[in-house]
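Page 42, continued from yesterday. The earlier attempt failed because a stray header line got pasted into the input along with the sequence. Redoing it now with the clean sequence only.
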Amino acid sequence: MKYFLGVDVGNTKSHALIADENGRAAGFGHSGPGSWEAVGWRGAQDVLHDIISQALLEAGIAKTEVYGAGFGFAGYDWPEDRPGHVKLVDSLELSNASFTLGNDSLVGLLAGAKDGWGVVVVAGTSNNCRGWDRNGLEGRVTGQGSLFGEFGGGLEVVNRAIEAISLAWSKRGPLTALSQALVNEAGAADATDLFAGLARNRYELSASTAPLVFNIADQGDAVAEEIIRWAGRELGGLANGVIRQLDLENEAFDVVLSGSLYKGSPKLIEEMSQSILAVAPNAYLLPLNSPPVIGGVLLGMEQVELRTSVIRPTLIETTCELLQLKEIV
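This time it went through. Structure tokens are written below.
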């Protein structure tokens, strides 16, 4: 029996999955942040070895029984990042395994897209968007967030909310219930204290505050609702850029929605859908409901030319069953 390894390394959690050649999940490993940007190269190596050791132990196999591997790394953004990540993989000594590696968003694309190609839009702590056409040509945005004008993740939603309460405080914009909500969230005395504390680093409002913005929008606050709709339009714009790069405007393909922010409000997806369908009317938006690490296993299988379209349903089913037993999903 041949086995295949998938790895999804992120800035908040890291997963490894082993499955056999029939697509049956056999072992799983998990840990916290594993990106070199979050924990450094030494820390990244430690996390990688840890999660793979867990998966191998549960599967009851040796490294030599792994014949293909697919790695998705948060922090693998530019060509100059490749040597460090290749070194990480080489340190595993998977002597019999052919492997490929790339940005972590791509394993989410493979996990969600039925035909193994299309576009993935990530909306979690921040945002990202990448895609493949049917011939394997890749399109992308920078993945660097607001630095390069890419918005729509949790961090950008919270920053937009802070801007909105600043506009209200200085009477440059409408009043909003976000003002008191963010004051309470930060533990500030009032809006003035909140702004001073944010400026002097006494307070912090991180991406984890994004659900609060969704809650205020659900209560009918027009300012908060517009922030959610703005985020949807921005995420749609990311997808449209990749769609144009890959000449997919007239194609039928999946747009995979990966990340926790999509659980916040249907208004986000409504705006995103309108934006994308105006450019690519045959696109199909679907939430990613299976673990992205599945895409890593599929990538590993493709290295030895297995028919992943046949194996994929079994892999998804057995992986979800395994993780439910572990109470991970």
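Notes: The domain at 3-113+289-325 is CATH 3.30.420.40 (Nucleotidyltransferase; domain 5).
Reminder to self: strip header lines before submitting.
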